[in-house]
């Protein structure tokens, strides 16, 4: 048993190897952004839950998105903060596997959820008379459950291929958390099967979601352009603008990181892009949805007034 433990590979997280004197500054910046992202997403969920006027399919999916953002950042950032602050830069093999599994599950689930949210906007704008029927309570819960299940199944398939690889006793991961492409780069055996699995996953999950989202917004934009009233046209665009902004920001980072797993080795660029959809995107989502949405702002005012009265 002791020999087995000794042969277990060890990973060293070298996310920010340069400028060690700036480590306290990086720790403070990441901690502040992490806390802000958590508070922002918790606030969005609280606002929606407390206001009955926001108990609609769109806001139901928005709560799911906020929950995913909280889980996604929590899967990566706390360990990174511990690595920055501590002299111990290691993470165990199974700890790394667990982080990869959870993070890729939340990432894949968010990808699917954004597609479902695009479909919700398509139904709301292109079939408004049938919206309550097509997006019933049962349908929304079924879609949300399906999204979470598929996201986790996809992640388990991808991460189950990692233990078959051979790693050296000591492995330096040039990243700030265990992400599948970063871990594959330090493997001592052939990663061809893993890269093929990632590409297949990208096609089945990423590209299909992307195509469905594009199709939804093609119909949405076409329908909006046919609206004669300028005021109604503006309102229709505003209901989709927030989601479209989030989709654009999210897809950019994910496509860059996962579509070309074995075709490039730009380590610093990988870290910057990953930081974008791990921290910046969850931080920006509450801002985008709240500042561009009068219903959320009014619900926030109502919530604050209620708390002040108490």
From TrEMBL:
Location(s) in or outside the cell: Cell membrane
- Give the protein's recorded name: Olfactory receptor
Cite the G-protein coupled receptors family 1 profile domain residue spans from the record: 40-289
Q: How does the record say this protein sits in the membrane?
A: Multi-pass membrane protein
Q: What InterPro entries does this protein's entry cite?
A: GPCR_Rhodpsn, GPCR_Rhodpsn_7TM, Olfact_rcpt, Olfactory_GPCR
Query: Could you name the domain of life of the organism this protein comes from?
Result: Eukaryota
**Record's family?**
Belongs to the G-protein coupled receptor 1 family.
SUPFAM superfamilies hit by this protein: Family A G protein-coupled receptor-like
Keywords of this protein's UniProt record, alphabetized? Cell membrane, G-protein coupled receptor, Membrane, Olfaction, Receptor, Sensory transduction, Transducer, Transmembrane, Transmembrane helix
Gene Ontology CC: one annotated term: plasma membrane
- Species annotation: Microcaecilia unicolor
């Amino acid at each position: 048993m002791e020999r087995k433990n000794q042969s277990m590979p060890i990973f060293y997280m070298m996310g920010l190897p340069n400028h060690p004197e700036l480590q306290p500054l990086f720790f403070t910046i990441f901690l502040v952004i992490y806390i802000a992202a958590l508070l922002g997403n918790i606030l969005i969920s609280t606002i929606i839950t407390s206001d009955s006027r926001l108990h609609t399919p769109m806001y139901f999916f928005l709560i799911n998105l906020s929950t995913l953002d909280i889980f996604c950042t929590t899967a990566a950032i706390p360990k990174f903060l511990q690595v920055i602050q501590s002299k111990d830069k290691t993470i165990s093999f199974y700890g790394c596997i667990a982080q990869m599994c959870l993070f890729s599950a939340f990432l894949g689930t968010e990808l699917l959820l954004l597609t479902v949210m695009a479909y919700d906007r398509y139904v709301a704008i292109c079939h408004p008379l049938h919206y309550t029927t097509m997006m019933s309570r049962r349908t929304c819960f079924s879609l949300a459950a399906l999204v979470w299940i598929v996201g986790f199944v996809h992640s388990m398939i991808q991460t189950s291929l990692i233990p078959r690889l051979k790693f050296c006793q000591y492995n330096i991961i040039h990243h700030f958390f265990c992400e599948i492409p970063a871990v594959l780069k330090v493997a001592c055996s052939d990663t061809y099967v893993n890269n093929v699995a990632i590409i297949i996953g990208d096609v089945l999950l990423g590209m299909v979601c992307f195509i469905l989202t594009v199709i939804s917004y093609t119909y949405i934009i076409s329908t909006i352009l046919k609206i004669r009233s300028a005021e109604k046209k503006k309102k229709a665009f505003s209901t989709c603008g927030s989601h479209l902004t989030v989709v654009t920001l999210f897809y950019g980072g994910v496509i860059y990181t996962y579509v070309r797993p074995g075709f490039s080795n730009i380590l610093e660029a990988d870290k910057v892009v990953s930081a974008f959809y791990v921290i910046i995107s969850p931080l920006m989502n509450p801002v985008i949805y709240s500042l561009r949405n009068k219903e959320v702002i009014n619900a926030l005012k109502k919530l604050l007034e209620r708390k002040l009265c108490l």
